[in-house]
Write a structure and sequence with these properties.
alpha/beta; Rossmann fold; five-stranded parallel sheet; 6 helices; 42% helix; binds coenzyme A
Length: 161
């Protein structure tokens, strides 16, 4: 039997947006198994706990097959290797993402030559989206229903009431 091709899609996901969900759905089509890896990332001082961030993604994917959603707090390349992943998936929304992503991709290759980085383009309607924008819009009472999964919108509404 041929070996399963495992890909990893890392991020802070504070919180997951429909743009991330769009990338996850596209990524599943090109690998056998996808590991969505949620970085603890205290440097970013996340609004949501790691458990909340993992649960939001689970709810957003509604039992989609061939996906695991796992927290991690170490080097991405180490975590990828531990999960037998051979590809790191990153979303590119605009040219402005490219420089930073290229730097990270090259550094990750420097850390592990066997893991490739693959850039994917989200649907055009999500190309302007980011987790920070969503939090800011919600804070000021704007409508975020089309931008994030339902569970995220409900939780942000609760926080801001
Ligand atoms: N739709 C919507 N938003 C998207 C998106 C998409 N498809 N893709 C990226 N974004 C946004 C995120 O919402 C986030 O926005 P915010 O800053 O407003 O919250 C922003 O892009 C950055 O995303 P983030 O998830 O924080 O990813 P990152 O590119 O900064 O990398 C890790 C985060 C976890 C992948 C990276 O820090 C890492 O690998 N850490 C582990 C330690 C390590 O190995 N370090 C060495 C790396 S060389």
């Amino acid at each position: 039997m041929p070996k399963k091709r495992v890909a990893i899609y890392p991020g802070t996901f504070d919180p997951v947006t429909n743009g991330h969900i769009d990338i996850i759905r596209r990524a599943i089509n090109i690998c056998d198994h996808l590991v969505v890896s949620v970085a603890l990332n205290p440097r970013k001082n996340p609004l949501f706990s790691i458990e909340q961030r993992v649960n939001f993604i689970k709810k957003g994917l509604k039992g989609l097959k061939n996906v695991d959603i796992l927290p991690f707090d170490n080097l991405l390349t180490d975590f990828a290797r531990k999960n037998d992943a051979v590809v790191i998936i990153k979303g590119l929304r605009a040219v402005s993402d490219f420089e930073y992503e290229l730097q990270m991709g090259l550094m990750n290759r420097n850390l592990d030559q066997t893991i490739e980085t693959l850039f994917m383009i989200p649907s055009q309607e999500y190309s302007f989206l980011s987790s920070s924008f969503v939090k800011e819009i919600a804070k000021h009472g704007g409508d975020i229903n089309k931008l994030v999964p339902k569970a995220v919108a409900q939780e942000l509404l609760k926080i801001n009431i």
